[in-house]
Amino acid sequence: MTSLFFETFDSPVGTLTVEASETAVWRLLFAQDSPAPGATSKPNSLTRLATQQLEEYFAGKRRNFALPLAEPFAQGSLSHHVLVALTHIPYGATASYAELARTVGNPRAARAVGSACARNPVPILRPCHRVIRADGSGGAYRGGSATKRWLLDFEKATL
């Protein structure tokens, strides 16, 4: 079993918790989420690095993250392709669920794309907040619609 460590910090979108093993960041949790059972309430090198990079992001000094992220889905699965595609949506830009479905080669899979985004264990780090509905409205977000809107507005303001 993999040992997990976590570190909690305050951000402009509320309390965030970074959960990581010795080799990868596993989850980024919003205030309403709980760390994994058995996770150790102390930082390690990856929780510290992720926290530092997130603080730089919220200060407007970082647009991309350089962190080893755990792969929660099977290589080659639609969900895996969606998570990879999320990292290619530019800072300050958005893509619709339908556009992302086309990007991953399955144009009829907009709902499946939405499901994969909802299961993204590291929001912000893999920027699922940049995925919106075709009509331009926000869509669902684990951190809440106000958090999603704040992140999108923040990125546009800091371009």
TrEMBL record:
Q: Which residues form a coiled coil?
A: none
Transmembrane parts of this sequence:
none
The record's GO molecular-function terms, alphabetically, read:
methylated-DNA-[protein]-cysteine S-methyltransferase activity
Cite the EC number: 2.1.1.63
The UniProt record lists the Methylguanine DNA methyltransferase ribonuclease-like domain at: 5-69
Q: Which GO terms describe its biological process?
A: DNA repair; methylation
The record's listing under Pfam families reads: DNA_binding_1, Methyltransf_1N
Report the SUPFAM superfamilies cross-referenced here: Methylated DNA-protein cysteine methyltransferase domain (SSF53155), Methylated DNA-protein cysteine methyltransferase, C-terminal domain (SSF46767)
Limits of the Methylated-DNA-[protein]-cysteine S-methyltransferase DNA binding domain: 79-156
Catalysed reactions listed for this entry: a 4-O-methyl-thymidine in DNA + L-cysteinyl-[protein] = a thymidine in DNA + S-methyl-L-cysteinyl-[protein]; a 6-O-methyl-2'-deoxyguanosine in DNA + L-cysteinyl-[protein] = S-methyl-L-cysteinyl-[protein] + a 2'-deoxyguanosine in DNA
Enzyme class of the recorded protein, top EC level: transferase
User: Which family is this sequence assigned to?
Assistant: Belongs to the MGMT family.
Key words of the record: DNA damage, DNA repair, Methyltransferase, Transferase
User: Which CDD domains does the annotation name?
Assistant: ATase
Protein name as annotated: methylated-DNA--[protein]-cysteine S-methyltransferase
